[in-house]
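Instructor's aside before we start: the two examples that follow are unrelated to each other. I chose them only because their records fit on one page, so don't look for a connection. First example below.
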Amino acid sequence: MLLRLEEHITNCRIRAAEFEKMAREASSGKAAVQYLQLAKSWRHLEKNYEFVVALERFLQSTFPGQWPPRGEGLPKRPDLGLFQESGDTVTAPGLASADPNMWRDLLVRLVNLKWGSPSN
């Protein structure tokens, strides 16, 4: 996971530098401000990724061989009757051909799981 995050961090740095260059070359002050705001957003995302990398390294050093967890102790996903599990594979055979009301029904089930059934 760390390698992928390092790639994201590099991409954020590249994008931020591109927008900073565009701000320097902008023909109007308004465009420059917008480019600088975009650069700032990319720098902020870069810092967030760096935090996740640092947290991941901390957890790996604090819990050697135990991080990331392999599913034990994590809450079980609620069964909504939509998915079929076979070993490590999860499929949703009915979703492709489902009727339009299926999505409304799914949303109702999810809301009921989270907050309980509405009282009539």
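Example two begins here.
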Amino acid sequence: MLGQQRFTVSANTDQPIIARPRQRRFAVRPPRDLRRALALAWRGFSVFVVVVGVGFAGYACVQWLETARWQPLTVNRALSSWPATREWAAHPHAWLGLHRIVMWVRSVPIFLLTTAIGVVFILLGAPSPRARRYDDW
């Protein structure tokens, strides 16, 4: 039944019988402009995340040019620089699963993470070929 259309038949005998699709009562779809605005906002946010990742890479490059040592900001350094997260990173009492993930990626530079997350967001927000075929945007 999924994907099939139901048809109703005209009861007027003077008119030829015309089958027309039945209106769905409970199918609530957002207006096309709202969907377009949300898609544009998602794509803008995704590009912003990529730009932030490139900014972190640029900061690491400037640091290298000044000191001749490659020392990008890592997850471990970011957590240890804030007093609120320093204690949690050393001795977690809550969010133990998140702590395991953080300890697994603690030596990864932040610019790699943010750029990769931004690229994934861009790929998730890209319109599908089917949407491009049937939609005019």
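The two ends are 30 Å apart (CA to CA).
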